[in-house]
Design goal:
Length: about 160
């Protein structure tokens, strides 16, 4: 990324109920705060309040979600339930990125995320990152890079 972002909106939808998921959210914010994305508008909303209007106005979405009992947190499922029909046609090919935070197996959550985003016809900018336990410095850097990549897509730099 060598040019500066001219426009674009990123919606960060999160359910950050633990220290680990809060650290993930901080890493995303760091990745979206780089100089090349200075013109990017970032809206960060809890999954229980983000809705169709927020999603329809975004050029890219970052999903931050804990894995509860092997599945997406109910708050993230609620977000998708609220936006599915209003956004189904209008957000086809919307770039997205996802970070899941788990203390054990996240395979069920990954399957659910893939099924939902495939049904929405959203376009992943990279494979989802699964964080087990508290993210270390390398994992935080990987999350920041993922956020920067999504930001570049939303800004039209990629």
């Amino acid at each position: 990324m060598t040019q500066e972002a001219e426009a674009g909106r990123v919606l960060v939808v999160h359910h950050t109920v633990s220290i680990g998921t809060a650290a993930v959210a901080e890493s995303v914010a760091d990745g979206l705060a780089i100089d090349e994305l200075a013109g990017l508008e970032v809206t960060t909303l809890p999954a229980l309040t983000a809705g169709a209007h927020d999603t329809l106005s975004a050029n890219g979405v970052i999903l931050l979600c804990p894995v509860n009992i092997g599945y997406l947190a109910g708050a993230m499922k609620h977000y998708f339930d609220q936006i599915y029909y209003p956004c189904l046609e209008a957000t086809k090919s919307l770039p997205y990125a996802a970070v899941l935070h788990s203390n054990s197996d996240a395979s069920g959550a990954l399957r659910a995320l893939e099924a939902i985003t495939t049904g929405m016809q959203w376009r992943p900018v990279a494979d989802p990152i699964v964080v087990c336990g508290d993210p270390d410095a390398d994992t935080r850097a990987e999350i920041s890079e993922l956020a920067s990549t999504l930001g570049a897509y939303a800004a039209g730099l990629m």
